[in-house]
Predict the structure.
Amino acid sequence: MNIEDWKSQIKRGSLEFGILLMITKRSYYGYEIISELNKWQILAAKESTIYPLLRRLLKEGFLSSYWQETTEGLPPRKYYSITDTGKTYLAAMSVEWENLLAAIEGLRDG
Amino acid sequence: MESILLNYLEKIDKYLKPLAAAERADIINEIKSEMLELEAKDKLTSAQIVERLGNPKELAKAYLGQSITQNNGFNIRKLGTVIVFYSLAGLGSIFILPVISILAVTLVICGVIVPICGAVKFLGALVGIDLPIIMFQFGSYTASPVMAFPLSIIIGILLFLAGSFLWKLTIQYIQMISSKKKQL
């Protein structure tokens, strides 16, 4: 179905934005990110998408990471935080996002 | 940790070989952590976890896809793999493939013709016609028309089976080459 193709394209572009929006508020670890995103069907993604994406954002310098032990008998977790570069990138994405919304609204109502 | 999960982690580790050891270990630890979270928080079984994470090779590829532009060593290694594959596949296609495929078809056809000839000779003998054209000879042994018929059937079956076997081999060879190509 074409709508599924389109949705997955939308998702591909938006996931990065969504993840950075989350991490700019506080640090998250992988499982948390996936759970949070799962609340919205359009952004729901599996481990095989999220983890490599996080790794890329890390390599590109938008995120930094640290491992933290847990006390609840659960395994250590790798937390991701946003860097200054990441904040700049997020700001730029936000601008483009607003531009996109304005464009769509303009086309719809214009 | 259950063996099915450890097994999965081992496979990922194997497919992540192009990466540096430290990075590989970090990835494995993160996946392990995720597995344990899924077990504890989502109450998934090991089988469900493995299914959710998907084919380990595909998962590893997703990680590697992110690093292909960053690691020069990996690129050269991949180039080497591609060259080797096409060389072998090329040679194989020039020699192996034509030989086994043609041989297979020929044997199958012979497997059918031989019993037919045997039948013809036999029927000829029944009717009283001698057919010197068709002969069952093995070294110095010449079979009588009556003997020739069952012998030809046996030989026919053997040839047919040999042909079928080679044909299956041909198909397997082709499948092996295509799957290797996909792995590139």
User: Anything to note?
Assistant: Helices of chain A lie at 2-25, 30-37, 47-59, 84-109.
